[in-house]
Each structure stands twice: as C-alpha cells, then as structure tokens.
Amino acid sequence: MLIENVRCPSCGAQVMVDHKLWCVGTVRLRCGACLHYFLPQGSPKSMSVEEAANAGVPITIWEPANNSGSGS
Fold it and tell me: Of 42, 33, 37, 4, which is closest to residue 21 (Cα–Cα)?
C-alpha cells in the first residue's frame, strides 16, 4: 500500500492518506489532531473516486452536516 503524508493547513499536524485518495484530490481529509477538514495540497487530481476504488458505478462522497471541523 502506498501512502502520502500531508500537513493539516490549520494546525500543521501530519496526516497519512492512501496514495490513491491523495491522487483524487477532491475528497476532503479530516485531521485527527484538530478535526479540521481540508483538501490535500499538491494532489495531481489525476484519478476519479471511481478509479481509486476500482468501481464500475458512480460513487457519491458523503460528508457530515457539520463539516466545519469544529468537532462539536
């Protein structure tokens, strides 16, 4: 499994993410330290979610209603 290490733009914590998810680049990540949601910086956005998951059907990404990252 390939991984990428990205930094949370809010608190600077290191977040490990699967390489394919990083290549998608349009799926927001959640920092485990400050609970902030962010898009991975430097992603080539060269892969769709369906390609990353090897899915033959469209995939919809769900996000919680309170996605501000405040943790409350």
Answer: 4
User: For the chain, what are the domain ranges?
Assistant: 3-53
| Beta-bridge partner residues of 4 | 17
Q: Which residues 6+ apart lie within 8 Å of 21 measured at CB?
A: 27, 29, 40, 52
Residue 64 backbone dihedrals phi, psi, to 5 degrees: -65, 155
Encode pLDDT of 18-47 as tens digits.
999 999 999 999 999 999 999 998 999 999
CA distance 42 to 48: 16
Question: Would the pTM count as exceeding 0.85?
Answer: no
Count CB atoms within 10 A of the CB of residue 71: 9
